[in-house]
Specification:
By secondary structure, the chain is an alpha+beta fold. It has 4 helices and 23 strands. The strands form 5 sheets. An 8-stranded mixed beta sheet has the order 8-9-10-12-16-15-14-13, with no helix packed on it. Strands 4-5-6-7-11 form a 5-stranded mixed beta sheet, with no helix packed on it. A 4-stranded antiparallel beta sheet has the order 3-23-22-21, with no helix packed on it. A hairpin with a 2-residue loop joins β19 and β20.
């Protein structure tokens, strides 16, 4: 039998849980931080009220996830946006929607470094080593299969340019590991961008990797556009950026070494076209960095069914972000002025240092010889951006406590 004070405490816990749940489900926003969300890592939230850097502000009532009406007829009410929620004012818009019925779990996204209006994507795990070239109308223009490759859990891709030939290079990251170390190593496949947009089977070079400190789940891949240096961003509550060796080997496992922290539950990452910065996407938002630990700005993201991909447009002025799901949209999101202003020409000495050298015979083909592309520490301190606001953590804790109170109250009344 509970005491009077005990019963009051239980009732307070119960009310706390119900109020928190109502705030999360009804308003779709985390109080104090202006973020909309569903309240779990699998169904993300997005920032709802934040200065965009372009002098615009998302309305608190509409939320950042409110979908603009676009040329393809997308309206509020689709992809988790409540009908009547209104338009987002952050400047984002739907660029296109995937039309191909085979693209159901778009997990990686890249813009062709050499072709105009060509976008690449691939499905998540168990879909085969296949990727799609998509036009600006969202229709598939070609389907490509990687010869000799496996698709255990493809989670991301990147695009770069071979500095010697000027030809595009595509990278596919088979790096998902939901058991945090179930696989002895992970793989990244390198393939020359196809010359023509027609269905084909393409040869690929496989590089195997392992982390210096044990297995991790990961979904983000970074390839520096000037140096070719590869990095992996892990998807964990204590995520990190791991950098590959300057020269990749095909005859042995390459070791990934930690060079900095990453936001909580990172789902993708990409370098700016000039290499001056990179972005890491989470279920909740996106953050732009000069280097690990050197945050430039956070960018409001539209609400998506399951935010899985991010990349830059070729001019570096916008981010493109996509989602899993059938006929899922790809949004174009403007970068804040502080990010655009941070882009600066690379020093001449760095360009000389990054000049390509002959490839090793063990690489299985020409390879760029990169210089160090990222560094730790710097402004703001490493790990400043956790990718998840404190208010969200506190709200989740409140829900947990409230739920416990509700259960206790029910149990008491049924005794």
């Amino acid at each position: 039998m509970l005491s009077k004070s005990g019963e009051v405490s239980v009732r307070v816990f119960a009310v706390t849980g119900l109020v928190a749940a109502a705030v999360l489900a009804g308003q779709g926003a985390w109080a104090g931080e202006g973020r909309s969300g569903r309240g779990d890592a699998g169904h993300h939230g997005t920032e709802a009220v934040r200065e965009s850097g372009h002098g615009t502000r998302a309305g608190a009532g509409a939320g950042a996830g409110a979908v603009r009406e676009s040329g393809d007829g997308t309206r509020a009410g689709e992809y988790g946006v409540p009908a009547g929620a209104g338009r987002a004012d952050g400047g984002e818009r739907i660029l296109f929607r995937f039309k191909d019925s085979r693209i159901t779990e778009s997990s990686g996204l890249a813009v062709s470094p050499t072709g105009k209006d060509v976008y690449y994507t691939h499905n998540d795990s168990s879909a085969g080593p296949v990727f799609f070239a998509v036009g600006p109308d969202g229709r598939t223009r070609a389907t490509f299969t990687l010869r000799g490759a496996a698709s255990r859990d493809w989670e991301g891709m990147a695009a770069s340019t071979d500095p010697r030939t000027g030809r595009g290079v595509l990278w596919f990251a088979d790096i998902g590991d939901n058991l945090e170390g179930a696989w002895p190593d992970i793989s990244v496949y390198r393939v020359a961008e196809p010359d023509t947009l027609s269905d084909a089977v393409l040869p690929a070079v496989r590089y195997r990797f392992r982390y210096e400190d044990g297995g991790h789940n990961a979904e983000g891949i970074l390839v520096h556009p000037r140096t070719g240096r590869l990095s992996i961003v892990t998807k964990q509550f204590a995520g990190a950026v791991y950098q590959a060796p300057k020269r990749l080997r095909t005859d042995r496992v390459n070791v990934l070494r930690k060079v900095g922290s990453a936001p909580i539950m990172a789902t993708d990452a990409a370098y700016a076209p000039d290499g001056s910065s990179f972005v890491i996407r989470t279920y909740f938002s996106a953050t732009v960095y000069r280097a690990p630990g050197e945050q430039i700005a956070r960018v409001t993201m539209p609400e998506l069914q399951q935010a899985e991909s991010i990349t830059y447009t070729r001019d570096g002025k916008y981010l493109l972000t996509g989602s899993e799901g059938s006929r899922s949209p790809v949004y174009r999101v403007p970068l804040p002025e502080e990010v655009l202003g941070a882009a600066a020409p690379e020093p001449t000495s760095a360009r000389r240092e990054a000049a390509p050298t002959p490839a090793s015979a063990t690489t299985g083909g020409p390879e760029p010889t990169p210089v160090a592309a990222v560094r730790t520490g710097g402004e703001g301190g490493e790990g400043e951006d956790a990718g998840l606001p404190i208010s969200a953590v506190l709200l989740w804790l409140a829900i947990a406590v409230g739920a416990t109170g509700v259960i206790a109250l029910i149990a008491r009344r049924t005794r």
